[in-house]
Amino acid sequence: MNIELKVNGSLMRADVDDDTPLLWVLRDTLKLKGTKYGCGIGQCGACTVIADGEATRSCSLAATAAVGIEITTIEGLSPDGGQFVQAAWQDHRVPQCGYCQSGMIMAVTALLSKTLFPTDDEIDREITNICRCGTYDRIRAAIHAAANNRS
């Protein structure tokens, strides 16, 4: 099936099976490799993108269901990694292995688009992505810094 997706502000076409997850269309068809495969069941968050303003696990969303939705991937945040959440991640040295980071940054960007200064409880409730390296203290500090330094 031929579909048209709006990804990072551009219309892109893909020929996919009805049940192909958005994750694989982004990575394999559109060659946007920043969105990572983690668990494949929507629990870890490595594949998180922003879909119409909401953090969305792309492994659990059929690409055909994403037609008409504004999709933003990590590549769409900034050409140079200078978006305010990305900058906070760098300033607070959040990544260790880095595998979960694009999904984590997308989830945080979605949260900060709705909540200017999230509390620790709001962060715990909204950011459910898993970091196997356990950099949660740095993640929380980076989220608060990003909230204070957005531009």
UniProtKB/TrEMBL annotation:
Transmembrane segment boundaries: none
SUPFAM superfamilies in UniProt: 2Fe-2S ferredoxin-like, CO dehydrogenase ISP C-domain like
Annotated InterPro entries: 2Fe-2S-bd (IPR002888), 2Fe-2S-bd_dom_sf (IPR036884), 2Fe-2S_ferredoxin-like_sf (IPR036010), 2Fe-2S_ferredoxin-type (IPR001041), 2Fe2S_fd_BS (IPR006058), Beta-grasp_dom_sf (IPR012675), Diverse_Oxidoreductases (IPR051452)
Example of a GO MF term: metal ion binding
Keywords, sorted A to Z: 2Fe-2S, Iron, Iron-sulfur, Metal-binding, Oxidoreductase
CDD domains named among the record's database cross-references: fer2
Any Pfam family hit: Fer2_2
Positions of the 2Fe-2S ferredoxin-type domain: 1-77
Alphabetical list of PANTHER family matching this protein: BLR6218 PROTEIN, OXIDOREDUCTASE WITH IRON-SULFUR SUBUNIT
Name this protein carries in UniProt: (2Fe-2S)-binding protein
Species for this entry: Novosphingobium guangzhouense
